[in-house]
Amino acid sequence: MAGNGIFAEILDGDVFKYYADGEWKKSNSGKSVPIVNPTTRRTHYKVQACSQEEVNKVMEAAKAAQKLWAKTPLWKRAELLHKAAAILKEHKAPIAECLVKEIAKPAKDAVTEVIRSGDLVSYCAEEGVRILGEGKFLVSDSFPGNERTKYCLTSKIPLGVVLAIPPFNYPVNLAVSKIAPALIAGNSLVLKPPTQGAVAALHMVHCFHLAGFPKGLISCVTGKGSEIGDFLTMHPAVNCISFTGGDTGISISKKAGMIPLQMELGGKDACIVLEDADLDLVAANIIKGGFSYSGQRCTAVKVVLVMESVADSLVEKVKAKVVKLTVGPPEENCDITPVVSESSANFIEGLVMDAKQKGATFCQEYRREGNLIWPLLLDNVRPDMRIAWEEPFGPVLPVIRIGSVEEGIHHCNASNFGLQGCVFTKDINKAMLISDAMETGTVQINSAPARGPDHFPFQGFKDSGIGSQGITNSINMMTKVKSTVINLPSPSYTMG
Asked: Which part of the chain is the Aldehyde dehydrogenase domain (predicted)?
């Protein structure tokens, strides 16, 4: 159970504490933030509403702790990360329970997220030792006009304090994907979890606490974005921001100043289906890509662009699979569970009503009960409909019929998003040409878009983000290069 057993110290009455300077604390504000269960639409948990003063103290502790942590040997950093990963996986059940209650993630998927997160932390520890254990040695005579009078030694050093802001849909996995690279690289870490998913994140942070990381190195502050959001992202102590979420990231980018940014801000991932595609494979991937976790994934299939000649057949195959999707509460491991909030459900409904008004073909009857929206396939969608361009983040998928591959590529590239896309064809030459033409960070060939495995590069173009994620890329972006040059009085060459 959440807040019980080894997690008992993170709960005070019915309000979960925040984590600072190696201790679980109550906010001096005396206020709390309610977390509404998407299924019951009632307050299920409460977290502390931290103040700006408390954020300042967290930042001071983080700066001090980082200086000492940077002097900690790499092997020791890795050892602690491995320990945290083991504790995280051992106590997957209560953390998964939080994911079920806070964000309506199906129970089996919630457990998978926690296990995956432990694996990510361990992999990051190993990769960090390899990457950061190597430097570069350069000699000056490789550049024209120089003798060998200079030796340049380069290494990767920490940035300082990293601010991590994960999204509601993967509040554990997309938190550790920021925490582990920051720590192995010698940084300190301040986590601001999403409101929906905050309690799962607090449980995860306690696993790092139990692993024995130094005080002040890791902090987790909860509260209202309207009160501490800008204060955190514009804080002078922050040396790097890693953010995953929506267009809030664009606002953060404009305010952050001259610090490294890692941003993943969503997508409108297109699925281009050619005439020679295996339609059974396509249909299976559309179901997996478009409807898993009720479509609340940045890498979900968001629009199907199918050649007119095979569109009827594909739509029928997808319709046959949609009716088999189970709909209900996450505790029952249903395929389709409630979306995260009433405002999200209302937004999705607005897109659906716009499509209806403009003549889209409804392959199923639109049905909604509270935050629960039944899966819906919309055929004959046109570019003048909002659903053709906007990200629903729900179990609603538009199908646009195209007359040529060029038309599909044009629609994909006309989007302000550019996260991922996919193409289905048996012709690898066509697939590569289309992949090169698509303005997206990743193109999947004959599979739905996906983030992972977690060591793969993950990046978006245009409004989908800045920088690249994935374990190796994250470690690298959370460091900077330091050079030391040895100047010799006369040229020196090794004769062999």
From this structure: 24-483
Phi and psi at 235, nearest 5°, equal -70, 135
pLDDT tens column, 302-346: 999 999 999 999 999 999 999 999 999 999 999 999 999 999 999
Per the listing, tokens 């302000």 go with 416
DSSP, residue by residue, 276-306: TS-HHHHHHHHHHHHHGGGG-STTS--EEEE
Q: Over 80: is that where the pLDDT of 496 sits?
A: no
Burial degree of 347 (CB within 10 A; 0-12, 13-18, 19+): middle
Looking at residue 463, the DSSP 8-state letter turns out to be T
390 touches 351 (CB < 8 A): yes
Q: SS3 string of 400-457?
A: EEECCHHHHHHHHHHCCEECEEEEECCCHHHHHHHHHHCCCCEEEECCCCCCCCCCCC
Count of beta carbons in the 10 Å neighbourhood of residue 428: 10
Q: What is residue 266's DSSP assignment?
A: -
Q: Is 216 exposed, middle or buried (0-12, 13-18, 19+ CB in 10 A)?
A: buried
∠ at Cα 191 (190, 197), nearest 5°? 170
Which of 14, 350, 136, 424 is closest to 2 using CA atoms? 14
Band the pLDDT of 495: cuts 50, 70, 90.
Answer: confident
DSSP 224: -
The DSSP H or E segment spanning 206 is helix 198-211
Q: Which domains are assigned to the chain?
A: 5-265 (3.40.605.10), 270-445 (3.40.309.10)
Q: Would you call 332 a catalytic residue per the annotation?
A: no
Residue 442 token pair: 């990743």
**Other C-beta atoms lying within 10 Å of the C-beta of residue 324:** 8
Question: What whole-number distance in Å separates Cα of residue 437 and Cα of residue 429?
Answer: 13
